[in-house]
Amino acid sequence: MSAKKIVINKTPQEEGFFFPAEWERHKATWLAWPHNPTDWPDKLDTIRWVYCEIVRKISPGERIRMLVNNKQMENLARKYLSRSGANPNCVDFIIHPTNRGWTRDAGPIFVKSRSKSETAIVHFHFNGWAKYDDWQKDRKVPETAAKYLKKKLFIAQINGKPFILEGGGIDVNGRGTLITTEECYLHPKIQVRNKGVGKEQFEETLKKYLGVSNIFWLGNGIKGDDTHGHIDDLCRFVNPTTLVMIKENNPKDVNYRPLAKNWERIKDIRLEDGSKPEVIPLPIPAPLYFDGYRLPASYANFYICNDAVIVPTFNDPNDRIALGTLSELFKDRTVVGIHAVDLVLGFGTLHCLSQQEPA
Q: What DSSP string describes 33-71?
């Protein structure tokens, strides 16, 4: 299969494309079958069963596009899915070797035409969160997706160089507003994605490649997030005028002060039309540790699919509160928890692993 002409000289904004909100109708969800044991020390087999549960909850409403390293891995995945009660016939297996498989960050980011029934892919380049060395296979996923789906591929650039962005570092309301964090994309020394790029130029590039018009910056993300401040562990849109944001009520917790500062800052947020959105608190579970490291356990890492909202749960009393809050906000979908105590050993959960393909 051959891809359509790769677009370099024009941007999605110039071509009339924009990044739709996650709750808009999907054609499919992209995942990558887990295979790297360093992501989940001593727990890789457990994680395979968690993936089966993810597929089982998403697949009634949409296709699954599953990246696998080879045919042998596809056969293994089919075996697990069948045994778990998930339907392998709902899954399109795509052979593309990956390093890690965090599809939110390295996978295809889809944009949608404002005037035509057409979607395209933006190739935001991936560099292992400016932290790890094994990213070369992951960086090629958008190219493979464009060839597989025969989609137009926009190559994101800044100053003539690849523009590095992860899907977990941004969230949108689909109407023009985008939220992100200064810790992730503006820190001058730690995990620097685009060296020498300041706030104004970064914003202009986001507008060009995602078709947004209004950008709001929060400060720091949560403790334990090795991506250095991804927004999808902190604050998320649930509809065009409502956000949920993590809140820590224990003054002795390491997350208390940075989250309190974000709650002060978000009082100033305005949407693309100048209106003020509603911001609803989500709790945070009690601290989880592995080998002495604080893990980024967060209810904000939920994923919105066509028929459900899947929410990470942590065997914590706040599970019930988080599920109840999100159930009130997503009345058109079933809100369901997926056990994520093992999953978060990889420093991410449900949203980090998935990427939506809009209809």
A: ----TTTSTTTHHHHHHHHHHHHHHHTTTSEEEEEESSH
